[in-house]
Amino acid sequence: MTDTPVVTAPPVAQKRPHSFTHHGITIEDPYAWLRDAGYPKVTDEEVLAHLKAENAWFEGRMKPFEPLVDTLFKEMRARIKEDDSSVPAKDGDWYYWTEYQEGAQYKQWWRKPAAGGRDGTEGKELLLDESVLAEGHEYFRLGAFSISKDATKLAYAIDTDGSERFTARIKDLGTGELLADEIPGTLSSLIWVAGDKALVYSLANENWRTDNARLHWLGQPIESDVELFHEDDEGFRVGSGLSSDEKWLVIATSDHETSEARIVSADDPLGEQRLVKARKAGVEYDIDIAGDRVFVHTNDTHENFRLAQTTLNKLDEWDTLIAGSDDFYLTGFEMFEAFYVTEGRLHGLDQVEVRYYDDPARIEPVAFPEASYTAGLGDNPEYETDTLRLSYFSMVTPGTVYDYDPKTRELTTLKVQEIPSGYDASQYATERLMITARDGTEIPVSLMMRKDTPLDGSAPLHLYGYGAYGHAVSPYFSTARLSLVDRGVIYAIAHIRGGDDLGRRWYLDGKLKKRTNTFNDFVDIAKGLIERGYSAKGRVTASGGSAGGELMGAIVNSDPDLWGAVVAQVPFVDVLNTMLDATLPLTPGEWPEWGNPIEDAEAFALIHSYSPYDQVSAQAYPPMLVTGGLNDPRVTYWEPTKWVARLREMKTDDNELLLKMNMGAGHGGKSGRFDSLREVAEEFAFILWQLGMADGVGEADGAGGAEPA
Questions:
Q1: Whole-angstrom distance, CA of residue 397 vs CA of residue 353
Q2: 282 by DSSP, 3-state: which?
Q3: How far apart are CA 161 and CA 138, in angstroms?
Q4: What whole-number distance in Å separates Cα of residue 475 and Cα of residue 372?
């Protein structure tokens, strides 16, 4: 934290008359001025002054707890192996891996000749040093990283302000020099085609939408780049990739519920494109190709997806290989020369199965050592392989990397996440419970705690949730989480509807007209855990980010007295305004998720009924920490800013309300591994402060924090 002037009162945003009318309903929005008219550039001095005032208030209120933040940060950092490296993965004649040097915020990318074996060091080459690229920048993120097929060139893309508009460069790995080619404004992978003479990429248009696939010939000016495909539907996004056998370029376009794909020869990207199957509303599919065999993963006959197969000469005629199932949710597949692998979830538990082209009845599930876990395919770049790289962890088991041999069906441990400060898994317990929601649906929740934590209602409990876009939150392992758990906090992950934790229906039952199920599930899990003696009212804290931040906004409006503290990270809380503005980067593509309030009066009314910003009322709210990013293209900075302004105006309590705006970052907060970890330490310190567990550190005068019940 920086030295800041003493601030004695929170900033109060001006109210300026502003209203709009849709479907005969007029909405007052007196804080609309906090959106800079020149966005994505933010230069309005009044807006910037208000954000700086919020940051000064945040720093002033947190200053007495800097020792706690320091303590938490040191704990978290001590659990990280600073000079760490990934397990090398073989791709052709080389092994590739990443390393962190001690004290470094960013990775290095390395390779060595495969002839020396995975564990050898002879011929080790540094391909890219992120720390060097990040020098002089407050923010840095490496996007695409792509080695040419002949392994002589590297294409990569970087973002230095958090706006997620990446600049692509090409490096000659023989000389170490950068080629003159430079492509600004990309938002995509970088695909080598035409015998490594060209790259396929997508540009973000002025509305930050990838509506194109483009071809760049090395050494030619970008003005001469060819647009291979253009998407006219503003709600769809375009992405490209290579088939498993690397013979085909696949150009795909999709929104949240409909997709379409084309293929063209990777050696002749300007050749004839072949449409796999024309888009049909509500039907999603993705494809892969190996030789003449084409596999299709689609929900055309079952919401939990099936795997179909066809051939190159009849792309649109699909024969079922694995039928859709009410119990098994097929999430994806990968093709290899001798076999293929399916991934999915059975009753919410990850499944990895090896299957064979010549014997469809031969199914070999990979057996994992725990009853509750998260597992999946790792980095498997080679089509011709006889082993599979897998990743594995649970809430109490650190991340583990395996090689799996399909012939012997044995797992070989290659690496277990090292925790330098020490970790004894036997001291911790994990549980998976089912809590009955108000509509009778059983909702899973995963918990982690120390085994000596009392289960008599006296323990604090932290509940995390997301619940949107069909994104499942797995029972993952976190070293940072231990700083709460070791202080007696029970950590819980709510597997609420809106994610696809229990299958596609789980997702569908938390979107559009059923969106409020997500919020109700989260609240009902908290109440159910209280009823079972895991915690008590006012001792439950909560956090979520982005769409999970919308969740936080909804639950503090509906059940404010339930929570001891709430952290809302880059929260999507001005939902109605955002969904009404088709010029914003994500809005048209989001209508299948939330509804289109411009055209649909029912969608307008529903979104308005739960939009956290619109539903702030005159009531007591729990202590809250809200974060945002000035350059965030996903949840624009004014959403958390307007929400906090309205909360300050309306709330009737003296509880803490803090807004931290990252002035040089985007959706993910600060980018360096230690800078981002310190932000976690700040959030945990806020939670512990509000629970009265600040380890003897005195409260700021007039803090008004929630006392433990």
A1: 22
A2: coil
A3: 7
A4: 8
Q: The tokens of 187 are what?
A: 């938002």
Are 322 and 331 a contacting pair, CB within 8 Å?
Answer: no
Give the single-character DSSP code of 596. -
Which band of pLDDT confidence, cut at 50, 70 and 90, is reported for residue 675?
Answer: confident
Query: DSSP for 221-268?
Result: -GGG-EEEEE---TT-EEEEEE-TTS-EEEEEEE-SS-EEEEEEESS-
Instruction: Return phi, psi of residue 516, to 5°.
Output: -70, -15
The SS3 assignment for 690 reads helix
Query: How do residues 402-452 score in pLDDT, each as one tens digit?
Result: 999 999 999 999 999 999 999 999 999 999 999 999 999 999 999 999 999
Q: Return the pLDDT at 181.
A: 97
- Sign of torsion over alpha carbons 261, 262, 267, 268: negative
CB-count exposure of residue 635 (10 Å: 0-12, 13-18, 19+): buried
Instruction: Decide: 328 and 346 in contact? Cβ < 8 Å.
Output: yes
Q: Does 3.40.50.1820 match the CATH number of domain 1-81+623-709?
A: yes
Residues facing residue 335 across a β-bridge: 340
Select from 571, 709, 534 the least CA-distant residue to 646.
571
Number of Cα atoms under 13 Å in the Cβ half of residue 406: 20
Q: Are 355 and 363 in contact (CB under 8 A)?
A: yes
Distance of CA 57 to the CA centre of its chain: 29
What distances in angstroms separate CA 28 from CA 20, 22, 285, 577, 615, one per listed residue? 7, 12, 42, 11, 12
Name every residue whose Cβ is closer than 8 Å to that of residue 49 and which is 6 or more positions away in sequence. Answer: none
- Token pair, residue 16, equals 């300026």
Q: What single string gives the DSSP state of each residue in 565-576?
A: EEEEES----HH
Element (H, E) at 198: strand 198-201
Tokens of 380: 């498997």
Across 312-427, the runs of DSSP E, i.e. the strands, are 319-322, 328-335, 340-346, 349-356, 359-365, 374-377, 388-393, 400-405, 410-416
Give the separation between CA 254 and CA 504, rounded to whole angstroms.
17
Main-chain dihedrals φ then ψ at residue 539, nearest 5 degrees: -105, 0
Contacts of 45 by beta carbon, 8 Å cutoff, 6+ apart: none
Residue with tokens 């004894």: 424
Other CB atoms within 10 A of residue 681 CB? 21
Distance of CA 639 to CAs 380, 578, 579, Å? Answer: 40, 9, 12
Q: Tokens 């309306």 correspond to what residue?
A: 650
Q: C-alpha 609: how far from its chain's center?
A: 27
Q: Which residues are catalytic?
A: 546, 632, 667
Collapsed DSSP state (helix, strand, coil) of residue 545? strand
Q: For residue 648, name the pLDDT band (cuts at 50, 70, 90).
A: very high
Task: For tokens 């009853």, name the residue.
Answer: 371
CA 114 to chain centroid: 33
The answer to whether the CB of 652 falls within 8 A of the CB of 684 is no
Domain boundaries, the chain: 1-81+623-709
Neighbours of 571 (CB within 10 A): 29
Instruction: Go through the chain and tell me how many residues it has.
Output: 709
Q: How many helices (DSSP H) and strands (DSSP E) are in the chain?
A: 12, 38
Output Rg (C-alpha) for the chain, integer angstroms: 26
For residue 707, is pLDDT > 50? no
Look at the pTM and tell me if it is higher than 0.85.
yes
